[in-house]
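If you are new to this repository, start here. Below is one unmodified record pulled from the training split, so you can see the exact layout before writing a loader.
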Amino acid sequence: MPNQVLIIEPQNELKFKVNLSGLFDQGHTTHMKLTNPTSNIVLFKIKTTAPKKYYVRPNSGVLEPNAKVDIAITPQHFYVDPNETHKHKFMVQSVIAPDNKTNIDQVWKETLPSQLMDYKLRCVFVSPREGNTNQDAGDTAAQNEVTKKLVAVAEEGKPPAPQTVSKAFSKSENVENDMQKVTSEVIHLREEESKLRHENLRLKEELLRLHQQVGGEHTAQRGHSYSPDRKEQLSVPWLGITLAMALLGIIIGKFFM
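And here is the target side for that same chain:
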């Protein structure tokens, strides 16, 4: 397979923006530039492993000697599966047009695979959190110095780093969840206490009712047992009076007879 004669920019990877939800950033277009530095006419095609997820314009064409073309690659609005990111790749395929060949489609059909020049680029998905993670080699030292200063500031009691803040929020959420559980348990215990109080009052009322019932029956029994004695007490004076009147009648009878 011959070496690629076209100059391709960028050289190794194509970057695409995705939001925090993992969806491609709508309206964002990545560009790839092709340059033909030779004195020959070169035919090119742009291929991808995910043709249904990208719009490529133009996806094929003809480059005259020393000509350039800008390829616009616009992703569709779909979710980027982290397990498939390494599978998304682009390939620039080119071939030098034979002399006296004007039918481009015919040239592609007659070209042997060994005559094709291929160049592959991998896809890189950049989220807002990773927007500034890739720096040029010349900026590495400066970036390290900035990082050291940020660490020093954090140790002096300045606002914590994003990861620390994230952990703090996580702990706060855990404490809040624990408080909710404790509150629910307290409410449950109060409901149980209220039920027990009502049950206690009910038992007291039942006990009082039983005491009243037993006391009434005892009083009725006492009244029934004393009533004959009372009748006997009442009958004694009348018996004395009857005897006195009988004696009086006998004495009066003797006097008048």
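Two things worth knowing about this chain: The two ends are 180 Å apart (CA to CA). Confidence is low (pLDDT under 50) at residues 131-144.
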